[in-house]
Amino acid sequence: MNLKQRAKQLKIDVPAIFIALHKKETPILAKVLALITIIYALSPIDLIPDFIPVLGFLDDIILLPLFISSTIKLIPDDIFTQCQHEAQSLTRKDLKRWYFALPILLIWLFTFYALFQLFHSLFNQ
């Protein structure tokens, strides 16, 4: 599997792990590791900071896939396959609803505009 295919697979595996976290049939150890994996995947804080040359990207290349693959191994195959199908259908549906991000974008634009006006008025007195 090349890097591009692996990246596409990760886009399905991470949501599938999140879905498996909420299933009753998922073993407790798998749920604990799934929670750690999801938190680590979404966290802006890395175990090895990205500004450290070469080593900084090792956690993205090695640690996150290691967490994901370990979690997948703990989830029973039939449950994880079902979770992957659910994740794929969610992804397809959500791509069609990109316009739901518009209010958030407008809030950010308004915030930047307000901050710009504030700094502009403070420094031009």
UniProtKB/TrEMBL annotation:
What are the alphabetically sorted keywords of the record?
A: Membrane, Transmembrane, Transmembrane helix
- Membrane topology of the entry: Multi-pass membrane protein
- Location(s), subcellular: Endomembrane system
Q: Which residues form the DUF1232 domain?
A: 30-66
Its GO CC terms are: endomembrane system
The highest taxon in the source lineage is Bacteria
Which Pfam family name is an example for this entry?
Answer: DUF1232
Q: What is this protein called?
A: DUF1232 domain-containing protein
Upper taxonomic classification of the species? Bacteria, Bacillati, Bacillota, Bacilli, Bacillales
